[in-house]
Amino acid sequence: MARTPLATAATAPREGGIDAVEEFIRRRKKATINDVANLARVSKKTVSRVINNSPSVKPDTRDQVNAIIARIGFRPDPQARGLAFRRSFLIGLIYDNPNAQYIVNMQTGALDGLRGTGTELVVHPCDRLSETFVDDIREFIEVQRLAGVILLPPIADDRRLLDLMEELDIPFIRVTARPGDLNDPPIRTAQIVSRDREGCAEAAEHLVSLGHKRIGFIQGNLQYPSAHERRAGFEEGLARHGITIPPELDMPGDYSFDSGYRAARQILSAPRRPTAIIASNDQMAAGAYHAAYEAGLKIPADVTIVGFDDADVATRIYPPLTTVRLPTRDMARTAAESLMNGEMTDDTSIVFQAKLMIRGSSGPAPKG
Amino acid sequence: MARTPLATAATAPREGGIDAVEEFIRRRKKATINDVANLARVSKKTVSRVINNSPSVKPDTRDQVNAIIARIGFRPDPQARGLAFRRSFLIGLIYDNPNAQYIVNMQTGALDGLRGTGTELVVHPCDRLSETFVDDIREFIEVQRLAGVILLPPIADDRRLLDLMEELDIPFIRVTARPGDLNDPPIRTAQIVSRDREGCAEAAEHLVSLGHKRIGFIQGNLQYPSAHERRAGFEEGLARHGITIPPELDMPGDYSFDSGYRAARQILSAPRRPTAIIASNDQMAAGAYHAAYEAGLKIPADVTIVGFDDADVATRIYPPLTTVRLPTRDMARTAAESLMNGEMTDDTSIVFQAKLMIRGSSGPAPKG
DNA sequence: TTGTAGGCGTTATCAG
DNA sequence: CTGATAACGCCTACAA
Fold first, then answer.
1. Chain B interface residues facing chain A, Cβ-Cβ under 8 Å?
2. Do B14-83 and B86-195+329-353 show the same overall fold?
3. I need a labelling partner for A131 at 20 to 30 A (CA). Which of A64, A182, A207, A315 fits?
4. B90–A120 CB contact, under 8 Å
5. What string of pLDDT tens digits covers the 368 residues of chain A?
6. Is A315 in Cβ contact with B318 (below 8 Å)?
7. Is the C-beta of residue B43 closer than 7 Å to nucleic acid chain D?
8. CA A73 remoteness from chain centre
9. B101/A100 touch (CB, cutoff 8 Å), yes or no
10. In this structure, how many other beta carbons lie within 10 angstroms of the beta carbon of residue A226?
11. CATH superfamily placement of domain B86-195+329-353
């Protein structure tokens, strides 16, 4: 069965050879696997094997097929492949998060990780308070036959979704601030974990090192695991130096600008005003700025403010905000990559460090 | 051929009837068009007709088929449909825009417009300066066989892309600040147009009404059509009252925070300081805030600042920024809807008004 | 108005 | 290592 594959003159109904290839290119039609097979004088199954990197293809054959593929610019149709594979080449990015900057970073990172894989990213915002929350997502995943899913906080910690993923038996990865082993019952899934807690502890120690002793605190939305982690981190950092947050300076918040503004107003009107305020995210820190300015206070001369996220606003407000940065884009890229590699198991847990960004909003505690 | 479709006992190889339906549901298998056909005792073609709203189906038949579809929860597979239709059920959102808030708004709006259509949104950021810019997008569209494309500014005005769309003969819609009829040569495509110009004129008149006569200007990135539109608008508004921008207060910028900061520093250190600064977007306005604060100036007591976009930062910086709002989300929703309706032609041009948001950063011009 | 045969572009099965 | 044949789930063309 020796053949001279790129020679002319085909006896079989198949065409092939250089002439045929050139002729095909001239036609400028979208190539299919059949075209490749005919031109390379092999069966479509062999071409398929080459596409899918099947080991059982003779190197020679593989090279010849690849040559034709490159020459005529063949790209397999994801829809047809998907139909045969019973799954699409789409990854779903599912989130219920109002932070635009965060979402775009995550998207960009995920796309970084998907580049070159032939898999596309489908965005899917949702509403965890909706009655149809779980059903909507189920339909999305089932109908689209997603290849995988990335779950962002806070819904990445939603039991209902985790159960759904299990039921649907779909590859997925969670992005969360809560280490799985702290859960009750423990959640065991592939996850991208950020060390919010350690970052916050560092920020707290930064304040202490500046001489702050009386510190106000604005809590995040307690429905987000991150809010608990961050609080724990701040408290740990302070506790190392024997400092605790006075109850009258400990305010609830929900991660929104407004809640930060209201909380800071309260804090700043306390009988003994603190020299610093910790906000559990940058939005609330921005709200605290407004409250401070309205009260005629200077930042950081009169009051130091720190936030968390290193969101866009952190460097837009004046003075630039001291905050804690999470490598969101890297986290998302890693999430997408591990999803693609299929190298994640139930206890794959990749951890990312947070980083303290010291800027103009934090200064020495005023005397007195 | 009269049948009692929901009765028991099928003579043909086909099964059907209530029992069969219940039996099927019990199996909890993903339904296909074949299942529906068997259960409804019609051919798959008839089911297909029902799915695609073909008029040539007897109402009775349609109802019966729909009943089965609802009962067993059949949802057609987009991949199979796509393969047969030779196009996917995906819309591409293509952009090269660093403004996270803007992108998320557009996405959300587009998804609003896509809801219920069975079409998903695939995000596709790109780099218009890359060598492979056009080819990348071509491949994206061709390989995915997109059902349509939404082009955001500034690439919505890129000739190369418009030519590509024409070549690929794909439904698309542009979002732009530049009315098509102002182009040279005129671009004739379906488009969503925002009236940046009128909004800016209104903002300019607002400044004049506050008594400002000496006004600094920070220009946007001239590669964006919007930068030209906005400048023209501001100038028009001022010109109506005989005011022009002094050349020494007319600064270049590129829509970035830093460029706004630099420009404002220059403007504020001019021999005769202006009483107001117009920035072509909010990012640059935020930069101007920093410059003003560093110079020890108060906003708006010493200097009034206005921006454009009503971005997130506008209400985060202190004091809240007077700016011009574009209904981005609505624009995107409309874009997606018209793409779906197929009701857009080369001269469909839907126009959205901008709206002046007066906030704390603009006040009366100081005396003297 | 409805059904039959065949195809969309790819992979699975199983034989060689 | 390779190939013929039959899926995958839906739609088009044509026929009835």
1. 30, 75, 77-80, 82-83, 88, 90, 100-101, 103-105, 107-108, 111, 118, 120-125, 139, 142-145, 257, 283, 286, 289-290, 293, 312-313, 315-319
2. no
3. A182
4. yes
5. 333 333 323 333 445 666 777 777 777 788 999 999 999 999 999 999 999 998 888 898 999 999 999 999 999 999 999 999 999 999 999 999 888 999 999 999 999 999 999 999 999 999 999 999 999 999 999 999 999 999 999 999 999 999 999 999 999 999 998 875 555 566 678 899 999 999 999 999 999 999 999 999 999 999 999 999 999 999 999 999 999 999 999 999 999 999 999 999 999 999 999 999 999 999 999 999 999 999 999 999 999 999 999 999 999 999 999 999 999 999 999 999 999 988 777 778 899 999 999 999 999 999 86
6. no
7. no
8. 33
9. yes
10. 26
11. Response regulator (3.40.50.2300)
Distance from CA of B84 to the nearest CA of A (A): 9
Measured to protein CB atoms, the chain D nucleotides within 7 Å are 1-5, 7-13
Query: What is the pTM for the complete model shown?
Result: 0.92
Report residue A138 as tokens. Answer: 């189920």
Domain ranges of chain A: 14-83, 86-195+329-353, 196-326
How far apart are alpha carbons A257 and A313 in whole angstroms? 11
Residue in the block written with tokens 């590129």:
B254
Length of chain B: 368
**Superfamily of domain covering B14-83:** lambda repressor-like DNA-binding domains (1.10.260.40)
Whole-angstrom distance, CA of residue A338 vs CA of residue A351: 13
Chain A residues in contact with chain B using a Cβ-Cβ cutoff of 8 Å: 30, 75, 77-80, 82-83, 88, 90, 100-101, 103-105, 107-108, 111, 118, 120-125, 139, 142-145, 257, 283, 286, 289-290, 293, 312-313, 315-319
Closest Cα of chain A to B81: distance in Å?
9
Quick check: A367 CB within 7 A of strand D?
A: no
- E strands, chain B, are 90-95, 120-125, 148-151, 172-176, 191-194, 215-218, 250-251, 276-279, 304-306, 323-325, 349-352, 355-357
Q: How many Cβ pairs closer than 8 A exist between chain A and B? A: 105
Q: Are B316 and A316 within 8 A, CB to CB?
A: yes
What would the two tokens of residue B242 be?
């005989």
Q: How distant, in Å, are the alpha carbons of A141, A142, A294, B42, B276 from that of A135?
A: 10, 10, 46, 30, 53
Helix, strand, or coil (residue B308): coil
Cα torsion at B103, B104, B109, B112 (round to 10°)?
140
Query: Residue B291: left (phi > 0), alpha (psi -120 to 50), or beta?
Result: alpha
Q: What is the second-level CATH architecture of the domain A196-326?
A: 3-Layer(aba) Sandwich (3.40)
Token pair for residue A60?
């020679």
Does B123 sit within 8 Å of A78, measured CB to CB? no
Could you tell me if B172 and B189 are in contact, meaning their C-beta atoms sit under 8 angstroms apart? yes
Cβ <8 Å between A316 and B83: no
Question: Stated in angstroms, how far is A34 CA from C16 C1'?
Answer: 22
Identify all chain B residues contacting A257, using CB atoms and an 8 Å cutoff.
315-316
